[in-house]
User: What shape does this take?
Amino acid sequence: MSATQPFTAPNPMDAPGYKWGILGAGGIARKLADAVTQYTQSEVVAVAAASGVERAQAFADEKGIAKAYGSYEELVADPEVDIVYVATTHNNHHEPAILAINAGKHVLVEKAFTQNEGQAQQIVDAARTKGVFVMEAMWARHLPHMYALRAAIARGEIGDVVSVQADHGQPIAHVERMKRPDLAGGALLDLGIYPIAFAHDILGGPDSITAVGRLTDAGVDAQVSMVFDYPNAQASLTTTMAGRTPCQAHIGGTAGAIEIEGTFYNPTRFTVRRLDGTSWTYDGRAENGFQWEAAEVARGVAAGLTESPLHTLDESLELMRIMDEVRAQIGVVYPNER
Assistant: This one.
């Protein structure tokens, strides 16, 4: 990490305003709509639901959105829409994203980017051919406490990083989309992406991966534990959809440690504890949290960029490659991969 890492996240209200369209009308789409509308200069002008215009209209009425479409094709053809947010299920990120890209829209794709590296590569190839801005919605990377945390490490506050630990467990195994292999269900893509992306943010790509998992009767992963090995560090990461875990993270260094409160991927606090007995706490708690990633997209579009320097397309590809390897080791294959 560069010692010039910025300590403070840019103010989302300082980003230029654009008009957003949302593909998908679920809970995650609601959170993004609220973030854009309440905490940025942008606005959501359209929403589409593949299940029909009725669901899209209900979402639009709830959120005060002007236009509701019953197909993704209609929304991406809307000339008023500048940026498209893909909020569909994991198995269906790549096709809507490519649809929007080919229509000349800038795109934010909900994490995990896709269900596998091959689909991710299709998005990246389309984006680079078309020259539009595309980013994975790895919202935690853009939060204020992550800016401050990266800056603290870059300044040498805890010496050399030798250990990263992170967990993410929620009791959501009963949720229909989590049960279903055809929707790329399971803990890894929905929950495990957070500790994996956190370790990747701090340490980069691992040299080797060791993973064990427990599968449901349907064949999706209910629980996964992973060890990532690096030349001078290791990351110990766990995820489960069978129960609640602390959802905390810890970074150990040769001169101290950083303890990130649960939930570590939400706007939160962390404490630096140095071996010399000194300590300090950063408080990054805030409402919602999606506004920082939305603002990152807006700044990138305004600057004429095609990807975020804070979370590049190559990093999204590597995250998918990592999860492909984890799934290979624990034996999870989605139906459309057979």
About this structure: The CA atoms of residues 86 and 109 lie 5 Å apart.
